[in-house]
Amino acid sequence: MDIHGQVTNCHLELGRTDPEIASLVRAEELLQQDTLRLIPSENYVSAAVLEATGTVLTNKYSEGYPGRRYYEGQQNIDPIEIIARERAQALFGVDHANVQPYSGSPANLAVYLAFARPGDTVLGMSLPMGGHLTHGWGVSATGTWFRGVRYGVRADTGRTDLDEVRELALRERPKMIFCGGTAVPRTVDFAGFGAIAREVGAILVADVSHIAGLIAGGVHPSPVEHVDVVSTTTHKTLRGPRGAMLMCAREHAKAIDKAVFPGLQGGPHNHTTAAIAVALREAAGEDFRVYARQVVANAKRLGEELAARDFDLVSGGTDNHLLLVDLTRRGVPGKIAAKALDRAGIVVNHNTVPFETRSPFDPSGIRIGTPALTSRGLTQEHMVCVARWIDRVVTAAATGAEDRVAAVRQEVRELMSGFPAPGLPV
Ligand SMILES: *Cc1c(COP(=O)(O)O)cnc(C)c1O
Description:
Layout (H helix, E strand, L loop, with lengths): L11 H6 L1 H16 L1 E2 L9 H7 L10 E2 L2 E2 L7 H16 L3 E3 L5 H12 L5 E5 L15 H5 L1 E5 L10 H11 L3 E4 L10 H11 L2 E5 L4 H5 L12 E5 L10 E5 L1 H15 L5 H14 L2 H22 L4 E2 L8 E5 L7 H10 L2 E2 L1 E3 L13 E5 L1 H5 L4 H20 L2 H16 L9
Helix pairs in contact: 3-11, 4-11, 5-10, 7-8, 12-15, 13-15, 15-16
The protein binds pyridoxal-5'-phosphate.
């Protein structure tokens, strides 16, 4: 480690044992250094978080919870999990945090296990409108074992209409309601959802996977007062390792803990728990608040610059870290645009847009986010350049002008070389 937290040891042992995997890891490091990563669910963890995930904690079994384990030798594991829990509780202002879910999807499944029975009705945002698979969508276990009913956004505003959600909830009487999603560029009205859930007697889950870091950083309202359970991944804007947390008031603590273990999982991933603790410590600092503000400022600016270049933004812009772009007007399907952008070193994902007219495998839009580039130090001024590149590549994709894509690739490489990625070897 040098003073900038850059990892200087280039996987010596891994290279000796398994050169094939070592060289792929090395190639991925170069790719992450060398590209402009705009997938809104991705980020760069710090060198400290990365180091915690690569520790001997991965060797340890510890089914159960601190003080109530099914294995001995928990002298160090218990305090690590207690610290992670306490930091989550302090940062989000909740009574109880469970830091054991392996990832966001199992975390949500644990919530179903805690509060619903197979066949019960669950109200969530429709996947093509911006919801997550685990909010009761058909192909997911949650949509197979439960009866998923869906709300969306309005065609004219691109935003969720809570009067419609209320009507649906009154008619369908769901056992649980999910708010939050994966392609929601606007502030989620947790108080509004809370009133509806109370009126129909449903358990309300705020899935803040995408925006947890923005909530921690004070740039998105907190759901805590308004919902029964807060579910979140730890690896998106929160900038921790791949993992998840469930947070709730004391009254639900037992149900949540029982659902995660022994309901759904076995031994917790202790190396991940340690890294979550480190990420939560980082997220409680003033630097992280500055980071969160910059993520939003960058997204807003990028949205303005794209809109000025005839890009059609769902809901007209953003309040958070992501932009959903409908490319119909530009005459390029999302996948073709995303692949061309990838060749230019600009990494996004193709995405459905509300009222999608194409197939979900070949949809009309792309999804763009600023968490990762902000972790590298890019600010509003750079968003002009990013928007210009996206415009050039999408235009080139429409006309098949591959040489223009290659030109952008070179410019991306040059800019990114000036912004070393956290946690990566120099
Ligand atoms: C990412 C995400 C998840 C799932 O997380 P995984 O770790 O990929 O399983 C769940 N809900 C929402 C809203 C998400 O954005």
